[in-house]
Design goal:
Number of helices: 14
Number of strands: 15
CATH superfamily of the largest domain: Glycogen Phosphorylase B
Radius of gyration: 22 Å
Largest sheet: 7 strands, parallel
Strand content: 15-25%
Shape: elongated
Structural class: alpha/beta
Distance between the termini: 24 Å
Length: about 375
Amino acid sequence: MKEETTRHIRLIVTGGGTGGHLFPGISLAQAMMLADPGCEVLFIGTERKIDKTALSNLGFATRSIKSQGIKGKSFFAVLKALFQQPLALWEAAGIIRRFKPDLVFGVGGYVTGPVILAARLLGVTTCIHEQNSIPGLANKLLGYIANKIFVSLPGSEKYFPASKTILSGNPVRNTILKVSREAKPESGQESSTLLILGGSQGARRLNSLMLEAAENILSKLSPPPFIIHQTGGHDKDHVQRKYVELGLNARVQDFFSDMAEIYSQADLIISRAGATTLAELTVFHKPVILIPFPFAADNHQEINGQYLVEAGAGLMFRQADLTGDKLGMEIKRVLEDKKLLAEMADNSGKVARPEATDTIINACMKLLKNRLDTATGKILAF
């Protein structure tokens, strides 16, 4: 009688270029390793610094391929990107052949295109996840060939075939979920805490709006708020000096790695409207003032944030319509209206989807169970 062997899942996660793409992929990889402790994970991303920073010290094997985006580029940049695609497809196919994955999961960004296509040509099961309200070009095209599609926001299902699309929500990193479940509202604090998040692309203008708001409005409050400000890579020193000049107590960094702790401290968040950030702040039941990044593809950030506004969890202002003084007055109004602040916090929690990762993992496990050849063994944790 043939002895049954035990197989562990081999997973490739592909995507990158922004934290919004990478963090859901990290969440999924970590959850899959909990479901199957013997699971082997490989990340295929871009060569951008943010990919390397986000994945460092997590213990995942990583590879990168040379691939560039097409949308919004000049004619010659588009030509260059198109000529690069066959090589990117060849590189991706080589990595897939060597790693022999059971599943390739795309989390967005132009690098997903050649990797998912190569996987399908090689007969590997593929899934994609769309974080935003309007899919990027890569995911729109990949929706036709992926075995399963997961979307974060209501309404974005319409861009994909209904028979294989699931409204899952956006995966949130386990470290953030764990702290969010343990976090308790603090009472009796003399001053409020503001958290400012500009994202990987849109920090500079948000930084200048906040400094103007701080100088003309917030520094005159009694007591003034404590400020936690993530500036992005360019403005840290300037922002820090300005808060010191204004006599404001502020913690300023270009990038925070301890986001769970940062979220838990905030009474009000000022942020762009990237889907991953929205998913994270809602699991902490945080009220938010959104300033969507105006140059996001298809203006998807504004559409991302609309569901929070409609739910009463946040306010939203177009950057072009906003001055620092106006932003400062809105922050002042919300912080001083404790009833409004509490209602926004409560509504934020109501739209959170902390179960998103489990929804995706369970669907992937079911898909793998139905497709793998059980004659060669079994996958753990079914």
